């Protein structure tokens, strides 16, 4: 599906490198006579290297990867993945339904206390992707430190769950892989050091996460880093100002929509594309569905602009 999506984008859009996109957004780009697109990936997952990179290179398509630098080259996992993996592990173990529910009750109690129904109402003895998504979104209202501490407690108390949890763990890039891709039509942007929600932290932490991630990447690949992506799309005036003051030329939100002349350089919108974005019920790629969803999201956001 990914390769078919790339073929479609290349056929119908002017695919820009990050530097070309910056010139385009500043209205100083030349010779662009059709809709333009910038391809981005967030976080720095290893499959960006093993799957996306070969496909992009084979088609001579540039892309930008936003790195969470405190995780690159480590065995750390983002808490949403840890939480999802832990719930999957509970369901995968040879446990009775009562035992599964008891483990979930304990986790819910540690996370939410008396309000653990917020956790359990999204769950069942066999967790589905839909329920997991709901759990993760609910947990985003909590502090990252609190969630990490709860997960550490559960994994320490029940080591067999951590062993099960690690079986299907998704890995992140190494710095060696980052350096290999750098300069081969792959640009890198910053995505903080620890993937924290930036609108919930102190000014000191904010600066460390934003400027620190820029420093980390520049030190590793010896290239200037000019783009930033807000983790989870969370930002406010102080966050965007800190990004600008740190030396970034552009930053990207998770808000759906196209970017037009006048779009603030630190509030670029994007359209999230996954397999379901362009897949028919039978799982085949549909160019019509791809375009419908692209323009549906774009015009919806334009309509809502003041």
Key words describing this protein structure:
single chain; mainly alpha; 2 domains; three-stranded parallel β-sheet; 13 helices; 306 residues
Folded structure, characterized:
- By secondary structure, this protein is mainly α.
- It folds into 2 domains: 1-75 and 171-273, TIM Barrel, CATH 3.20.20; 79-166, no CATH class.
- It is 49% helix and 10% strand.
- It has 13 helices and 8 strands.
- The chain has helices at residues 2-12, 18-25, 47-58, 79-92, 97-112, 117-120, 129-139, 144-157, 159-165, 175-181, 203-221, 237-245, 287-304; strands spanning 14-15, 36-37, 40-43, 63-67, 186-190, 227-229, 250-256, 268-270.
- The strands form 3 sheets. It has a 3-stranded parallel sheet. Strands 6-7-8 form a 3-stranded parallel sheet.
- Helix 4 (79-92) runs parallel beside helix 8 (144-157).
- The radius of gyration is 21 Å and the shape is globular.
Which helices and strands appear, and what pairs or packs with what?
Blueprint: H1 2-12, E1 14-15, H2 18-25, E2 36-37, E3 40-43, H3 47-58, E4 63-67, H4 79-92, H5 97-112, H6 117-120, H7 129-139, H8 144-157, H9 159-165, H10 175-181, E5 186-190, H11 203-221, E6 227-229, H12 237-245, E7 250-256, E8 268-270, H13 287-304
Parallel strand pairs: 1-2, 3-4, 4-5, 6-7, 7-8
Helix pairs in contact: 4-8, 4-9, 8-9, 11-12
